[in-house]
Design a protein that fits this description.
heterodimer, A: mainly alpha, two-stranded antiparallel ribbon, 2 strands, globular, B: mainly alpha, ABC transporter involved in vitamin B12 uptake, BtuC
């Protein structure tokens, strides 16, 4: 198949053909993505070395190349405490970033975020009830059932608000999430203090209890939903031109929106079931992304939001872990302190429209 | 003229009397019902004189009556704070919890408790610190929300309030996690629970109630005109800026008193004024009605909080959030179009 005309160089796109597969890559954005990914990997290695027992980066490299063996204690700290925690932080951050990016494009509302819309609280409530009263289920069923809770809340918010693109929609979601958190808190209060303590930490969102067991589920669901969202990315680019134009150009609106909503909710529910209720990443990550690479293609926004989200959660968890040693701040609190100013900046930028 | 005044008084007296009767009913119920049911006759006995030998009397005297008084005063303060905010901002979503006053007041008290030089946080200092913190955060909210061509719209001020509240709460949580001593001192109070109501603060705060109520009465007489718009109010000879300033100080004082006594309790200031203003449009009449209604609602909410999860008690603030959060969502859906 030949192209009818040559792509002008000025757009910055580069055509790649591998057999029957054709791709258009934006050079600058691809470079930025690769840089962000390498930054994330470097951040992971740096974060592992930090903590109450310092392990120098140089020492880490020596250990990995097999030149030096660590003491069993240091080995355990590294592989059983820090590594799963750091990996989970990156995974969950990426999930939240993706979830926020797709919710924002779906609702066409820059303030959409699973935490603000009550979707997160819906998942928390379902998963909490399952943990407390349900039979023991395989690990995968918690995020799946949590998704249903999140979808119900999303449906309720949309039903009350009727339109999704304005701030009113977000405020109604906030009201619903307050109600659901009151319900969650009521359940927690009725428990014995010893049972409630770990659950309370989980509701606030903390990576302190991270283990390797939950990593496969988290990674698997992240991958599945990422692929789903990437599949919808082109349609959602077209949808940003408006519903009528999109329909005219052959986008199946209902199906695309349903997939986006399902994937976004499931990502948020997965994050809830693994580390608990972390807020603000879904809100900030897409905006930081668009600040750097612009809002030209949903695929690159998604990929970059995932990277930025991972970086954000990694950074806030590491700050909370290291800044006040020997005490630890939960990542959720550090994030709120970073996230609210960003929220206010967003509000400031839209001050003339609201 | 005379008949008009009389009919005005007459019209005012009926809803007030009705609310007073309701309040008496709720209070009686509050005192009688609990994990231990107390007979009505014991209650009447207590009116005749305290009998140290009677277990019922001791429960009433040391546990339920102080808590009831705290509930009534806190509820009235929260309601009035909400009414003033709604009138001053012409915003039916105005409420100390939503607009950041509660979070600011909590943060101020926690900071004062944690401060190394040991600021006094008991007696009259506590409500004053709380009122200052609440007022300052509210000021930040309205300054931020006033930016832009459209001025201070309903949406912006509500959203800014929520955002600033979230920031203040995060800072509060961080302080409490890092400082165990402070956490021990404020643990029960923090969650907004009348079970942790501080009686010393209650008595000290009653002195602050006097100027706050006087300010509220003065402001309410101007709010009717202010409801017609700043220009009309100015034309009617009202100094809008002065009324706003006094009104905000009074709202912050009421909120500070409530938070100092019982911790941050939300939504009473949202529900009661909105309910009252559906029937009464006159702000002067609204003040006593909202005070009575707020007292009644909080006593009722606290009664429910003590009973719904027996043998556990839930914090009072949770009971009010349970009712208030859906009310907020519905109000947003109705008010903002």
């Amino acid at each position: 198949m030949t192209m009818p005309f040559k792509q002008p160089r000025a757009t910055g796109y580069h055509q790649i053909t591998i057999g029957r597969l054709e791709m258009r890559l934006h050079i600058l954005r691809s470079v930025i993505l690769v840089l962000a990914a390498s930054g994330l990997i470097a951040g992971v290695f740096w974060a592992i070395t930090l903590g109450s027992q310092d392990i120098l980066p140089a020492g880490l490299i020596a250990v990995m190349s097999g030149d030096v063996t660590l003491s069993p204690t240091a080995q355990a700290i590294l592989t059983e405490l820090r590594l799963p925690r750091v990996v989970l932080a990156v995974l969950c951050g990426a999930m939240l970033g993706l979830s926020g990016a797709s919710m924002q494009s779906l609702t066409r509302n820059g303030l959409a975020d699973p935490g603000l819309l009550g979707v997160r609280e819906g998942s928390i409530l379902v998963i909490l009830c399952l943990t407390l009263f349900g039979p023991s289920l395989p690990a995968i069923s918690y995020p799946v059932l949590g998704t249903i809770g999140g979808l119900l809340v999303a449906a309720m918010t949309v039903a009350i608000a009727r339109s999704t693109s304005n701030l009113r929609f977000v405020l109604i979601g906030i009201g619903l999430s307050w109600f659901l958190s009151a319900l969650v808190a009521m359940i927690l209060v009725s428990l014995d203090a010893s049972d409630a303590q770990p659950l309370l930490l989980w509701v606030t969102g903390s990576l302190a209890s991270a283990t390797w067991d939950i990593v496969p589920v988290a990674a698997g669901l992240l991958l599945v939903n990422f692929v789903l969202l990437l599949g919808c990315a082109r349609a959602s680019d077209v949808m940003s031109l408006g519903a009528q134009t999109a329909t005219g150009l052959g986008v199946r609106l209902g199906r695309t929106s349903a997939i986006q909503l399902l994937a976004a909710t499931m990502l948020s529910a997965t994050c809830v079931s693994t580390i608990g209720g972390i807020g603000f990443i879904g809100l900030i990550a897409p905006h930081l992304t668009k600040l750097v690479i612009g809002n030209h293609s949903q695929a690159s926004v998604l990929a970059a939001s995932a990277l930025v989200g991972g970086l954000l959660l990694l950074a806030s968890d590491t700050i909370g872990r290291v800044a006040f040693l020997p005490l630890q701040l939960p990542a959720g609190i550090v994030l709120a302190m970073i996230g609210v100013p960003v929220l206010l900046i967003l509000l400031w930028k839209r001050r003339d429209e609201l | 003229m005379r008949t008009e005044r009389l009919s005005g008084v007459h019209m005012a007296s009926r809803p007030i009397l009705g609310l007073v009767a309701m309040l008496v009913l709720i209070s009686t119920l509050y005192l009688i019902v609990g994990p231990r049911l107390i007979g009505f006759d014991s209650l009447l006995d207590l009116a005749n004189g305290f009998d140290a030998g009677s277990f019922d009397h001791r429960v009433l005297q040391t546990i339920r009556m102080p808590r009831l008084v705290a509930a009534l005063i806190t509820g009235a303060c929260l309601g009035l704070s909400g009414l003033l905010l709604q009138g001053l901002l012409r915003n039916p979503l105005g409420e100390p919890h939503i607009l950041g006053l509660n979070a600011g007041a909590t943060l101020a008290v926690v900071v004062a408790t944690a401060a190394p030089m040991g600021l006094a946080t008991d007696g009259i200092a506590r409500p004053l610190i709380a009122a200052t913190g609440g007022g300052l955060l509210f000021l930040a909210t309205i300054v931020f929300a006033s930016a832009g061509k459209s001025g201070m719209t309903l949406l912006k001020v509500t959203f800014c309030g929520i955002a600033f509240s979230a920031l203040a709460s995060a800072v509060t949580s961080a302080i409490l996690i890092l400082d165990d001593d402070t956490l021990d001192q404020v643990r029960l109070w923090m969650v907004g629970d009348l079970a942790g109501a501080r009686m010393d603060t209650l008595w000290a705060s009653s002195w602050l109630l006097v100027p706050a109520v006087i300010a509220a009465l003065y402001v309410s007489s101007c709010l009717n005109a202010l409801a017609l718009g700043d220009d009309v109010a100015t034309g009617l000879g009202i100094s809008v800026r002065r009324v706003r300033l006094i009104g905000i100080i009074a709202a912050a004082l009421f909120c500070g008193i409530a938070v100092a006594i019982a911790g941050p309790i939300g939504f009473v200031g949202l529900i009661v004024p909105n309910l009252v203003r559906r029937f009464v449009s006159d702000y002067r009449l609204s003040v006593p009605l909202v005070a009575l209604g707020g007292a009644g609602l909080l006593a009722l909410a606290d009664l429910a909080a003590r009973l719904v999860m027996l043998p556990h008690e839930i914090p009072t603030g949770l009971a009010t959030a349970f009712v208030g959060a859906p009310v907020f969502s519905i109000l947003v859906a109705r008010v903002l179009r």
